[in-house]
Amino acid sequence: MQKRVMEEDFRKGEGRPQLLDLIPNERDWMVKDVGVGGKCFGVSEEKKLELRLGLPGDEDWSSVKEKREEHSIESALSLGHYSKVSKTIGTNPSSVGAKRGFLDTVESKTEVFQQQQQQQPGFLQLQAKGKELSQKTNGRAEQQSLEKKACGSPAAHGSAAAPCGDGAGANNSSQTRTAPTPVVGWPPIRSFRRNLASISKPSLESQNGGPETAVKFKNGRKGLFVKINMDGIPIGRKVDLKAYDSYEKLSLVVDELFQGLLAAQRDPLTAGTQKNPEEKQAITGLLDGSGEYTLVYEDDEGDRMLVGDVPWDMFVSTAKRLRVLKSSELSASSLGAVSRKRTAT
Amino acid sequence: MTYFPEEVVEHIFDFLATHRDRNTVSTVCKTWYRVERLSRRSVFVGNCYAVHPERVVARFPGLRSLTVKGKPHFADFNLIPHDWGGFSLPWIETAARGCPGLEELRLKRMVVSDESLELLARSFPNFKVLVLISCEGFSTDGLAAIATYCRVLRELDLQENEVEDRGPQWLSCFPDSCTSLVSLNFACLKGEVNAGSLERLVARCPNLRTLRLSRAVSIDTLSKILARAPHLVDLGTGSFTIDHRAEAYHKVMNNFIKCKSLRSLSGFWDAAPRCLPAVYPICGNLTGLNLSYAPAIQCADLIKLIHRCSKLQRLWILDCIGDKGLAVVANTCKELQELRVFPSDFYGGGIAAVTEEGLVAVSSGCPKLSSLLYFCNQMTNAALITVAKNCPHFTRFRLCILDPKKPDPVTNQPLDEGFGAIVQSCKDLRRLSLSGLLTDRVFLYIGMYAERLEMLSIAFAGDSDKGMVYVLNGCKNLRKLEIRDSPFGDAALLEDVGKYETMRSLWMSSCDVTLGGCKTLAAKMPGLNVEVINERDESDEMEESPSDLGRVEKMYVYRTVAGPRNDAPDFVWTL
Fold this sequence. Notes:
The complex is a heterodimer. Chain A has a domain at about 225-265 and about 280-330: Ubiquitin-like (UB roll), CATH 3.10.20.90. Helix content of chain A is about 50%, strand content about 10%. Chain A has helices at about 1-10, 25-35, 45-50, 60-70, 75-80, 85-90, 95-110, 110-120, 125-135, 140-145, 145-150, 155-160, 190-205, 245-265, 270, 310-320, 330-345; strands spanning about 225-230, 235-240, 295-300, 305, 320-325. A five-stranded mixed beta sheet of chain A has the order 2-1-5-3-4. Among the domains of chain B are: about 1-40, Monooxygenase; about 495-535 and about 545-575, no CATH class. Chain B contains 21 helices and 23 strands. By secondary structure, chain B is α/β, with parallel strands linked by helices. Chain B is about 30% helix and about 20% strand. The relative contact order of chain B is 0.06. Chains A and B meet through helix 8, helix 9, helix 12, helix 13 and helix 16 of A and helix 15, helix 16, helix 17, helix 18 and helix 19 of B.
């Protein structure tokens, strides 16, 4: 029913591009590309390997193709394509003229395309690639050969006719991948998926010991902020434990956070004016008891623990607050609590 | 039929499954129209501006289920300005007045406010199902209203919405008497979740079959929930990370083992590879698996998991699975029907994660494949031709080559032949998205062969107006056409203006259509709304009256019986 309607459309619309007419005859295509003879190479191979576009009901492509090479353009068209409307075409000479006209316009409009055609590798190369692919897929593609499906692609056939193309040259600029400039709304991904990738990449790097993770978490990623206080310093701070992946980094951060404040506590007169970094003392040895200060934390059961004893991940998931204690103040009792805790786990 | 009592006619209509069939019978005669409208329980409105809500409600007073869609598809990719429209309030208000028996509401790409959610919750005593997909404009307060007032709520399904977080209390608003939940999906929420409330809610809803948790739900909570609800069929995990406590890990695995009915898994936010084995015991039963939110899981671990999923029908995955991983999918998942491969690195220059080889492998190993969404760095004609031969049953084929206008890297040709093979082979193709370097030729093939095509998405393709004309002439069943950055202009637009009344909508952005062309279309077709969307920076010189020759940046055309809409913002002109 639909095809009939289309036929009528074809008959009606003189000015309309008639679909049929727009299918370039294979032979013409070859002539255009090669500029010689028009005989295609490796016909029998094409038959087996190639998938071409043709009529759904058109079973015996090979015989049709041979006929086409012998007959004129008109009859070839009628045989090769819509057999149902063949008589329409056969009896309508103007369509042929229109077709030629179209080919002319195609040629003028698709000059770039043609240039590409000439640059393409030989047909055999294309088919060889197709062969490789099909072999990879257990040769299924090869077995489902054309005789069954009878589909065709004129351009692939056309490419058969241009083996003179510089095959090696096929791998030119298309292979080198330059980063595409960002286009609005491209690629077509929802925003929450974009954020997913940018959130997770930093943490991936940190897992692999990559560069220091910048604290750049987008919406949806919550940080884990815990309070940290230092003995003798009235001002507390907050650290985002999720921003770090190791005790060393945490220790450095603590040093950064409190160095200035500590210096100001010690010598309020000079802190503001003295910008000399050597004047400030780094806070070191937080983790091993060797420094003036030691880092401890309060876990989810309220116990005070030494920072550094448990795996980092477990620390992050159980730490509720941090304290920087004077090492001398670490009482025997609290340490005892720690060792009890350790044996318990 | 005049001898049949109307009850019999109505009973016969009950057997009509689709909206289209019911719409068709209603046009036969006045009696059938009346019988049909009074017995109609479910209405689908594909474009909220195609018809006034009052008209729908007046015609179908017995309405129980309403589905409405708002913004065009390209809104998903930020191509439609935020306040373009698609407001749900008029629909809810009108339904509240006209069909208080409403039980189900499904909205997609609409603006939903807390106010409208509250109105919804209070207006329909029998309300059972709320599905919001890609909507925005509401917060957890609106959800609290739904939880509080919908006494017989069965389904609350929030898919990929933008929801403002105002705290975790909403979940606690489900009264103790609420035991009717069958499906609860709040995976898209970003805020904290009250674990205790959640566990209690799950415990008192024995019919719960679908539960999709948000990222804030820890694996410990998940473990407890699984213990309480081993009858779950569809589970979305929360954040799937475990610390080193082996005890917690074994607990969650044991709870998974008890879930004999589990068929679909998703979520896996923040999932670390070491946690995946917890789900191994149930992999053999899975028909659906979505790992596309877990970029930390790389190919090797994905392969170990997929090896166990022999019954998989639906797989959503990131491209870090690689061609190698897709080969495993091809060997293992013989029942696969739907595959979606999402990109994990789309700013270019990265390692090619999946190529045409992966797709060819899957097409070869999975003959039932019918729905595809595939993001890749390159594609060849030969591969597409092979895929077309292997899988003639595609109904949805969406290919996105990340680099626009990229040709076949082997032959340097456009991908016309490849896509041509797809449309020629897949006779049932209903949806197609194109990418890569494409000339007018591919549209010729589409027009010739894609008879069942209903939705076509075009980007950076074609050479001339002819391309668009081939499609409009050829695709008899085309309903939605969306085009961006392609050289189609007024000639194509105006070639067959009657065509647009047979379609739901046409979107064109960054094409060659001019204001004059749009005006002509609007003048010729009063049954269409021709919207021109002009976003301007303040820095642009303000034109008093833009020239008709000026190109239109964004145009949205849709058939309507409602006339020009009255809620359009300043930057949207309905011509």
